[in-house]
Amino acid sequence: MEYCREYEKRFQKYYDELKWLYCELYENRMPEFEDLCGQMYGWYQSRKKGLKDLDRIRSKNPAWYKGNNIAGMMMYVDAFAGNLDGVKRHLDYIEECGINYLHLMPLLDSPEGKSDGGYAVSDFGKVREGLGTIEDLEGLAEECHKRGISLCLDFVMNHTSEEHQWAKRAREGEREYQDRYFFYDNYDLPAQFEKTVPEVFPTTAPGNFTWVPEARKYVMTTFYPYQWDLNYWNPLVLNGMIGNMINLVNKGIDVIRIDAVPYIWKQLGTNCRNLPQVHNIVRIIRIICEIICPGVLLLGEVVMEPDKVVPYFGSVEKPECHMLYNVTTMAATWNSVATREVRLLHQQMEAVSRLPKEYVFLNYLRCHDDIGWGLDYQWLKQFGIEETSHKKHLNDYLTGQYPGSFSRGELYNSDPESGDARLCGTTASLCGIEKAVYEGNEEETDRVIRLNFMLHAYMLSQSGIPVIYSGDEVGQENDYSYHDDPRKQDDSRYLHRGDFRWDLAEKRKERGSVQERIFNGLKKLEEIRRLYPVFGTEAEVRAVDTWDDSVLGLIREGAGEKLIALYNFSGLDKVVWINEDDGVYTDLVTGKEMEGKAVEIPAYGGYWLLRKISPDKGGAAVL
């Protein structure tokens, strides 16, 4: 009864706004709205007591995910441990890594050979064969909760697989199900769409429509021909997809990663990206979660330029996503690795630091996907940088084609006509560890391990939640075996999606090994971050001029602490002419004391310089 009163209180709080948003999307569709409201109560009733108790705890501290005590890891279940039970068996290792936020890449049912890495879902209530069952997923979530680990899962909203039950019935000619997609009898309207809608993958999946011979109609397929775009003009689609999502959170998922958010509303005469209706839908989802499962977070996947990303936070008064990926900073970081200059990264950091502190980013160096060069070329023009030639330089450097480059990456979706391409590779291989170890160059190995350490230190000093890709903690290199696998050889993203190297993980115990140095270095950074409140999201953050375009500097202040973080992207030793002339600082990593001016920093080096600033504490902090 007590839980029911809680539900009713939350429902009444949000009912008017939910109704207004729904009716703005779907005029005169009150039966569908009332049906949704009825289903919501049923979904709440089926939520287990343990999850409702967790909702209560988190509701009392709505900023529970905004501190400096959360560190994440993303992984493919099969690559890491074979199946869900394997992941459960290796939770001790995950905890040893300092991880309490675990993102499992797409694992729901998808057709072999036409899965798009799991993003072509054929059944939202079933785990892919070989990975386990939906009950195994629920069991893993329960064990994670016992250990204080939050579980994140992808939810693909824009499309389904052509093998989804809705798609099968649409192919058979059922009008009700064709209306859940964008079906057209001839190419007249698709041709109108093509005039304004960009192609996502022009080389591997040209066009935005596919002919379905069984139905004798065209269907919209923005990403791949086997992924049919859902028609959110139809309220039954929204209701049904929300039901699929709630079913997953009721299995114990703590964070829902909404895939390809900007694409989910289509309208003729537009580019079908970032339309206002998308924000209505995301806000509706947020409200429904606040009513049914207020302890669940929404993570938006918006891989676009900065001005398109931030709106998906919504407003402070009417929030949408709890968290977003810091995509532009990730790309700008690798830009700095390839160019050895930090002007763009400095500008990006300033822009992020001006945002409201309620906005939480997930920060990362690498993920399952490619690196796209969606940099702020309008801003870069002032330095004489031209987009096409600059992208070529980045790709040449990070694939090892540029003279003196240490990186070993590969291109993805290369378009010979435009010269545009994206990039793939593990953090270790892009940092030069693969090359240095292969050549047996110990001095160079030391340098590039220092670069790897510096890049992770930068990621961990950004406000938000740091997330590493499984394998990066032991310096896992590129997996070139995908070239010999017919199922994968056309997708270079498998270069960095290789099976987790448990043999390398064992070497983390060998003192002085590359793996031990990377593993323990990263673990130490995570421990420092947890220990000092200045790394929390409430800290004031600002960029600081270093008077050297290859050295990035930022200052964090909060909780009686001041941190100067310095990162040398150059292969040369530097003197950083900052002028923080306010006393002695201590590097939290080495314990070395120095003043906050004329700081000597080695090639690819990084410092976390801390000073206590509270009058009652005084002195320098030493780890």
CATH superfamily of the domain at 540-612: Golgi alpha-mannosidase II
Structural class: alpha/beta
**Strand count, sense and closure of the main sheet?**
8 strands, parallel, barrel
Strand segment tally: 23
Q: Overall mean pLDDT score?
A: 94
CATH topology of the domain at 540-612: Immunoglobulin-like
Helix percent reads: 25-40%
| Low-pLDDT windows of residues | 616-623
Largest beta sheet: what is the strand line-up?
1-2-5-11-12-13-14-17
Give the CA-based shape: globular
Annotation keywords:
623 residues; alpha/beta; Oligo-1,6-glucosidase, domain 2; Immunoglobulin-like; eight-stranded parallel β-barrel; six-stranded antiparallel sheet; 22 helices; globular
Can you offer a commentary on this structure?
The radius of gyration is 25 Å and the shape is globular. It has 623 residues and is an alpha/beta fold. An 8-stranded parallel barrel has the order 1-2-5-11-12-13-14-17. It has a 6-stranded antiparallel β-sheet with strand order 18-19-20-23-21-22. It has a 3-stranded antiparallel β-sheet with strand order 7-9-8, with helices on one face. It contains 22 helices and 23 strands. The C terminus is likely disordered. Among the domains are: 71 residues, Alpha-Beta Complex (Oligo-1,6-glucosidase, domain 2); 73 residues, Golgi alpha-mannosidase II (Immunoglobulin-like), CATH 2.60.40.1180.
Blueprint (SSEs and pairs):
Elements: H1 2-25, H2 30-45, H3 49-60, E1 72-75, H4 77-81, H5 84-89, H6 91-96, E2 101-104, E3 108-109, E4 123-127, H7 134-146, E5 150-156, E6 159-161, H8 165-171, H9 175-178, E7 183-184, H10 188-196, E8 209-212, E9 217-220, E10 227-229, H11 235-249, E11 255-259, H12 276-292, E12 297-300, H13 306-309, E13 323-325, H14 327-339, H15 343-353, E14 360-363, H16 377-380, H17 387-398, E15 410-412, E16 422-424, H18 427-431, H19 433-439, H20 442-461, E17 465-469, H21 502-506, H22 514-531, E18 540-543, E19 551-558, E20 561-568, E21 574-587, E22 593-601, E23 606-612
Parallel strand pairs: 1-2, 1-17, 2-5, 5-11, 11-12, 12-13, 13-14, 14-17
Antiparallel strand pairs: 3-4, 6-10, 7-9, 8-9, 15-16, 18-19, 19-20, 20-23, 21-22, 21-23
Helix pairs in contact: 1-2, 1-12, 2-11, 14-15, 14-17, 20-22
